[in-house]
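INFO  loader      accepted 1 record
INFO  loader      residues=444
INFO  predictor   begin
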Amino acid sequence: MAQSTTVPASQAPAAQQPAETAGGLTGSVSDENAWDDIGIAIPAFPTNQSVPTAAAGGNTQVLGRNLANVVYDDLKNNGLFKPVGPDRLPAIGFATVTFPQFDGWRARGADMLVQGFVKGGADGNLTVGCYLYDVQLGQELAREGYVVKPADWRRAAHKCADMVYSRLTGESPFFDSRIAYIAETGPKGHRRKQLAVMDSDGANHRFITNGQAIALTPRYSPDYKSIMYLSYLAGSPSIYVYDIGTGHQRLLYRTHNETIAPRWSPDGKTVLFSMSSNGNTNIYKMPSSGAGQPVQLTNTPGINVGGSFSPDGSKIVFESDRSGSQQCYVMNADGSNQHRISFFGGRCATPEWSPRGDLIAFTNTASFRIGVMTPTGGDVRMLTNSWQDEAPTWSPNGRIIQFFRTQKNTGDTSIWQVDLTGRNLRRLPTPVDASDPAWGPVLP
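INFO  predictor   done
INFO  writer      dumping tokens
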């Protein structure tokens, strides 16, 4: 848990909040023009008194540097900013957090300044404050405070980075979120595939399943309480729902027919999946509670798979070979009005609707590149150009796409992400090979 708390006001005058629709320090990473680097200084977060803590570092003084480093890494890896971290900056005093020395930071060429503090409580919990200053104007742009358990200290840093990102770009946050994925080990052709989770920056990796059975295609529930995935635990492909709070899982659906690609509806009440029968594969939906029978949504010869709901739940994008090759289609949530949207000359697979609703990410399986297009199939853009990229998943704010890449010859897999400009490409660290990422929403 990360509980918001009030932090002391700074001595710097507060800047006017930007309008919701325009003006201020807003921008969009979907803008094709080059983003001007913003120099952001992030010194170590001081403490009022160094006390022992179970968080990384062992005491609040060391933890303050670790917090600043996570904020620095988040903003640097995003590719939009030009931050300078605590290892290259002088330390600041606790009182200076709310009384920034703007002249000194101007002399260093900083445009923005992120200062924070950490305090240890008698109950063992930590209070973390975070302030964003405009150095050139000498103004406070934003401040927030969080109370976290020692085990959740990184969440406080991610929330600080989210505050900075949102205030400077005008976009929704995404750093305080998690990713479910498939951890892969073993030789090519005989891979051990386990369900695993990690923070949005690759930290706090944790296996969920033990590898006894193959796990595939995980998806976080919209409320973050569950992960749905496909397992061959009993020999047949079956849909399981893993309860994150209790660690227990329940069988949602199993038949002797091939079943693939389960997906949640935006309200978490409905599940989509594809199932083979009599030589064809079609898309079905059923209540996520498990009550009731599946309802068939598609009914054409061939393969119909990969359903993904629009954010308002009214439509579903999926792939089908009914035209002779893999292409992307859209239908209403009840299966009506099925129509093709991809006509770019390649093949379209694994479509995923953006949480903003403005774009659909997909895999061009003719060249295994990741692309985006509008829900009507317009403005097609390829974002990657490597050996084999596939299975896109969106960041909670709909501005970054993760996918997995298979290395030529070896079959090794890894998770990568790229923003909508296609310029900020980077690999996420994982302890073993990784595939099939599924980015969850911002943590509650």
